[in-house]
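Recall from the previous chapter that SMILES is a line notation for molecules. Here it describes 2-acetamido-2-deoxy-beta-D-glucopyranose.
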Amino acid sequence: MYLPLIFLVFIYCLAQPSHQQMTECKGDFCSNEVPQRPHCSKSPPCFRMIPEQIPGRRYTHVVFRFATIDPRTFKVSAGNDAGDGIQRVSGVKFSQAVIKVWVAFGGWEFNDEGPTRTTFSSLAASAENTTTFLDSLVSMMNRYRFDGVDIDWEFPTANDRGGRPEDYKNQVEFMSRLRSRMKDVKKGVSVVIPATDRYLKGFDLKSLEPHVDWFNLMNFDLHGSWDILDKSTGPWVKSHTNMTEIQTALDQLWRSDISPTKVTMGMSFYGRSFTLTDPSCHYLGCRISSGGNPGECSKTVGVLHHEEIERIMRQNHLEPTLHPEHAVKTVSWGNQWVSFDDADTWRLKRDIARSQCIGSFAVRALNHENDKESNIEALSLALDHKQMEAPNFSTTGQQGNVWRKPAPQQCRWSSCFEG
Ligand SMILES: *[C@@H]1O[C@H](CO)[C@@H](O)[C@H](O)[C@H]1NC(C)=O
Ligand SMILES: *[C@@H]1O[C@H](CO)[C@@H](O)[C@H](O)[C@H]1NC(C)=O
Ligand SMILES: *[C@@H]1O[C@H](CO)[C@@H](O)[C@H](O)[C@H]1NC(C)=O
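With both inputs in hand, we obtain:
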C-alpha cells in the first residue's frame, strides 16, 4: 500500500486566483527566462530560486505546477510556459534521492474564462476522454519520472468557475479511474481542496477519499482583491489565511469522516496585500480599492514575499499585529495593508493541526524563498523538523539510512474527533 510519507509538499508556482494578473508564475521557474541571480545593484536583490537550488533534506515531495491538458484532445503536455522547467524539476531527484516529484494540473486560471474553463468538467463527464487523458498522462509521467499527480480543479460544480452540477458525481468516477491507473504504475494521487465552504461543497469528500493519497487543503488565498467583485465577500480588508475560516473547512472534513492522515495543512510563504480606500481606516473590515502595490521582487499586484514585508516593516519601523485566534499577522503602512504567516503563526497552526491529528504540511510556494532559505528554516523550526538525514552510502548492498518519517504523534483515534 502506498503510504503518505510527507511532511512538506512543495507547490511549485504560486497559483494566482486573480483575474487581473494571469502571468504571475511565468516569470519564475516555469519559463525559459534566465533566472535572475542576486546582484549588487541599488535595488534590492531579488532572489529567484531555480530547481537546482531546492534546499536539500527539507522537502519530501515537490509538486510541479502546472502541466496542462489540451481542451480539445484531452491529452496532457508540459504547457507553453513550462520551458525546460518540467525537465529540471524532475531532475531534482538526481541530486536529492529521497524527494518525490509530482506533477499538478489545473489551478485557478485553468478554470478562468477561456478555452480550458470546462476542460475538467468535460473530461470527467466522458469515459472515452478520460481514457485519452490517462494514456497521455502515464506516458508523460514515465518520460519525466514523476511519482504522482495532483489534481487542482477549481472548482467542481461552482457555476462562477465554469462548473456543472454533474461534476459532483463525475469527479468521483474520474478520480477512481485515475487512482486505479496510477496504482497500476505505482504512482500517487492527490487532490487540492479549498478551505472556503462554498467551493468545498462541490467535492464529494467521502467518496473521493479512497481514491487519493491525500487532500491538499488550500489554507491561503481565502481573501484577496478578487473579493471586490464578489457579492458574497465584498471590498473589505480580510486576511488571506485565517485559522477560524480554515477550521470551518476542517470541520467539514471531519464531519465527512475523512482521516486526518489524508490531509495536508497548507502553509504560505507569501502575504496578500490590499490598497485601502482611506489610509486612516486600516483595520480588518475597512474598505479596499484594489490589490496592494506590487513588491519589488514579487512584481505582482496583491502579493508580497516575506522578505519584502520584512523590509517594509524595517524601513517604516512597523510592528505587525498578531491575531492569535486566527493564526495570522497583519500590518499596514500608508494606504497599504498585508496579511501573512511567520514562525509565530506557523507554530499556532501546527498546534491546531496536530491537535486534530494532521501530521503533514504543504508549502506554497518554495520559490517564494530568499537566498538564506529563511522561510523553510523558520517553518522547519516551527514544525520541529530536523533536516532529514542524508543518505548514507557507505554500507554495501543496502540503501543507506534514508530518511524516514517518524511514526506520527500518537493520537488516539477514539478521542480525536469527539465533540
Ligand atoms: C470527448 O472529446 C471529444 C473530442 O475529443 C468531444 O467531441 C466530446 O464531446 C468529448 N466528450 C464529452 C462527453 O465531453
Ligand atoms: C478571521 O475570520 C473570522 C471569521 O470570518 C473573522 O471574524 C476575523 O475577523 C478574521 N480575522 C482576521 C485576522 O482576518
Ligand atoms: C554510515 O554507515 C556506516 C556503516 O553502517 C557507519 O559506520 C557510519 O557511521 C554511517 N555514517 C553516518 C554519518 O551516519
